[in-house]
């Protein structure tokens, strides 16, 4: 398993998309690197298993994808890229997408409809679940070392519930900007509101929560033209506040025992919530939503092909 895994996460480098000066570190810094850092900055194993099981059907994950791809369809216009034969092409095979903090990998399957996807995550446990999905363009790396890819390598970057984990969000976004091609977009989703900080943020290893102005400011500072920022997950804001107040009191000082916030719901409720997100995914494209449990942002790297 180890040798096959090492081979799979080296594919991007072998193909020339990973900067030579950064290979093997930081693309593979944790294969034999700092296990203390590794263990302190990843989720519990049971949470990866829970995500892998629920990611396809659970309302929260489906809702996030509905919103993200609704925005991607509106704000990203593919530019011609040179294929292996040197000719300009709009084919999907000529485009690249990077999912930073790819988790157990289902988002990579959806990105594959737009471009050739590459998944990057700090946690080897997460990438092993990606392999179970048949994904092989994977990179185990920490954003703290910089992205292990050449300048202007990608047309799309997604960072879904990832940026709040980074010690330096501005430095990470500058790296996103560097590896995006002109005309490329980054789509970011993060948790909202500092006052909602709870045991769940501790469990997930968050460094901060955001507001719309806060996220817009750091994305613009990194060089992007912000195409939109908005709140999302409106309908679940109040229920989530109440649940987290209750569970924060219950698990105060014992977050390792808190289980998951993705609680089982009846099938009919799951379908109803997914229906709601189909509506919200259209609203987020057209109106400014005043409040929500999450913030989403689309940034574009403006410029001509060099």
Share in β-strands: 15-25%
Helix/strand order, N-terminal first: HHHHHEEEHEHEEHEHHEHHE
Q: CATH superfamily membership, which one? A: Vaccinia Virus protein VP39
Strand order of the largest sheet: 5-4-3-6-7-9-8
Q: Which CATH-level-2 architecture?
A: 3-Layer(aba) Sandwich
Mean pLDDT: 82
Characterize the largest beta sheet: strand count, sense, and whether it forms a barrel: 7 strands, mixed
The tally of structural domains comes to 1
Q: Helix count, per DSSP?
A: 12
Question: How far from one another are the termini?
Answer: 41 Å
CATH class: Alpha Beta
Helix content: 25-40%
**Radius of gyration, taken over Cα atoms and rounded to an integer in Å:** 19 Å
- The count of strands amounts to 9
Outline, from the CA principal axes?
A: globular
Stretches where pLDDT is under 50 for at least 5 consecutive residues are: 1-40, 253-258
CATH topology: Rossmann fold
Structure overview:
This protein is of the alpha/beta class and 306 residues long. The protein has a single domain (2-300), classed as 3-Layer(aba) Sandwich (Rossmann fold), CATH 3.40.50.150. 40% of the residues lie in helices and 17% in strands. It has a seven-stranded mixed sheet with strand order 5-4-3-6-7-9-8, sandwiched between helices. A two-stranded antiparallel ribbon has the order 1-2. A hairpin with a 5-residue loop joins β1 and β2 (88-89).
């Amino acid at each position: 398993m180890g040798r096959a895994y090492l081979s799979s996460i080296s594919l991007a480098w072998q193909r020339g998309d990973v900067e030579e000066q950064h290979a093997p570190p930081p693309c593979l810094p944790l294969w034999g690197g700092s296990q203390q850092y590794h263990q302190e900055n990843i989720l519990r194993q049971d949470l990866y298993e829970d995500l892998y099981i629920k990611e396809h059907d659970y309302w929260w994950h489906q809702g996030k994808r509905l919103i993200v791809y609704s925005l991607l369809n509106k704000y990203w216009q593919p530019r011609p890229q040179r294929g292996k034969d040197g000719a300009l092409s709009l084919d999907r095979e000529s485009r690249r997408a990077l999912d930073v903090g790819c988790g157990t990998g289902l988002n990579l399957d959806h990105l594959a409809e737009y471009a050739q996807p590459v998944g990057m995550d700090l946690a080897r446990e997460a990438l092993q679940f990606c392999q179970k999905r048949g994904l092989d363009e994977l990179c185990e790396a920490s954003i703290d070392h910089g992205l292990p890819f050449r300048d202007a390598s990608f047309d799309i970057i997604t960072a879904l519930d990832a940026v709040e984990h980074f010690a330096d969000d501005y430095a990470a976004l500058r790296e996103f900007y560097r590896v995006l091609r002109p005309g490329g977009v980054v789509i970011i989703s993060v948790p909202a509101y500092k006052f909602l900080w709870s045991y769940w943020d501790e469990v997930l290893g968050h460094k901060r929560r955001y507001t719309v102005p806060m996220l817009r400011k750091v994305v613009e500072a990194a060089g992007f033209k912000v195409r939109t920022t908005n709140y999302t997950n409106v309908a679940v804001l109040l229920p989530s506040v109440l649940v987290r107040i209750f569970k924060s009191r219950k698990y105060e000082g014992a977050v390792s025992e808190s289980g998951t916030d993705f609680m089982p719901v009846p099938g009919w409720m799951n379908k109803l919530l997914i229906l709601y997100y189909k509506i919200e995914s259209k609203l987020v494209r057209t109106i400014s939503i005043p409040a929500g449990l999450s913030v989403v942002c689309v940034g574009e790297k403006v410029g001509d092909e060099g």
